[in-house]
Amino acid sequence: MWIANNWKDYEVLDTSAGEKLERWGEYTLIRPDPQVIWTSDKKNPGWRKMNGHYHRSKAGGGEWEFHKLPEEWQIGYRELKFNLKPFSFKHTGLFPEQAANWDWFSKLIEEEVQKGRTVKVLNLFAYTGGATLSALAAGAQVTHVDASKGMVGWAKENAMSSGVADKPVRWLVDDCVKFVEREIRRGNKYDAIIMDPPSYGRGPKGEIWKIEDSIYPFVQLTMQILSDNPLFYLINSYTTGLQPAVLNYMIGTTVGKKYGGHMEADEIGLPVTDSGLVLPCGASGRWQRD
Hints:
- The structure is a single chain.
- The protein is an alpha/beta fold.
- The chain has helices at residues 99-114, 130-138, 149-162, 176-186, 211-222, 244-259, and strands at 2-3, 10-16, 19-24, 27-32, 52-56, 62-66, 73-77, 80-84, 120-124, 141-146, 169-173, 192-195, 200-202, 208-210, 232-237, 262-271, 278-288.
């Protein structure tokens, strides 16, 4: 398992009965997590003195309960700063477990940039820009694509806070599939592709995305915009059906088949302070050149 264990401003304090107790900077939140099928003694005082608690509704959805929580605040990871705000369906605007991947590809980018290479990265389904900011800080040129105008705006705010807004980045509100199709026609190429596809979603014009049906044809499509000497390829998945072995096989029959290189896939997770165990948070498939 790849564990995001370099955080200073974030930690999972405890997990119990379908929920996780988290520290985001100086504030504590309780949020639902379907992976947490066990119980704990809940000795951590944060369970009783939280700043925010997202209550899941049995009918679907849910709502936040707040206790002295600001509308927005910041936490940092290495040199980056992220603006957080609780919004619909339990989210805060950041997936901290992805730091395990940020560290991995940032090292690859830095090594190539030090050799004098220009590294062009395409970040698809890019959300609030955690991967975009990490790649920019490592020295890459980044194209950031997400179908949500609000998420792209949020990512721009994070870039400003992190001091990387003046680096070479394109911010695009677009359907990821249609964008890649246009890039193929334009003949544009990228040295690395990152994608964090949703299980289900709609594009700006109502385009339907269902990951089990759409992901493999999309990966095949992106093969046409990889450069002749690509650096890495990363797919993240929060869908239980796309286990690490599935991601590995999918990358192996596309990127690996054409370019060789090294492939691996695994769960990603976050350490839990009170138990000393690790909370699983989905899976990632990685490819890098030899």
